Amino acid sequence: MPVEFLTQEQKSRYGKFIDEPTNEQLAVYFLLDDNDKKASYNHRGDYNRIGFAIQLGTVRFLGAFLSDPIKVPSNVIHYIAQQLGLGENTLEKYSYSESRWDHTREIRQTYGYHDFMKQPYHFMLVRWLYK
Q: What is the DSSP string of 96-111?
């Protein structure tokens, strides 16, 4: 007998921004420490720097990477841009950049995020859920 963990509404909302994050949420999930800033600045071009940082904050906040990494609320863009000292308008070029896929791999590797659809992480998650 299959068990549904999420309602249809929860499934439709998963991995998406429903509302703008609050100031408290911005401070928790989108605040860049020195290591985060260093990782962002290691990329060429301002659009890659801000794009990397936004993807990092997004995966922290949502638990997933967005299929279109620049479809984020304006307060997220503003908050990240201020921290990096970059213009908010540089982000648009990032959506056309192939490096965004490299950034997701780098974030997973550097920060220890895993794709739970792949083994052995899927097995580990299922085992944890059954416990």
A: G-THHHHHHHHHHHHH
Instruction: Look at residues 15, 22, 27 and name the one whose alpha carbon lies nearest to residue 69.
Output: 15
* Whole-prediction pTM: 0.83
Domain boundaries, the chain: 19-130
- Res. 4 pLDDT band, cuts 50 70 90: low
State the amino acid at position 76 in one-letter form.
V
Structure tokens at 45: 């071009």
Annotate the chain with DSSP letters as a single string. -----S-HHHHHHTTS--SPPPHHHHHHHS---HHHHHHHHTSSSHHHHHHHHHHHHHHHHHSS--SSTT-S-HHHHHHHHHHHT--GGGGGGGGG-THHHHHHHHHHHHHT---TTSTTHHHHHHHHHH-
For 9-28, how does the pLDDT look when each residue is reduced to its tens digit (9 = 90+)?
887 777 889 999 999 999 99
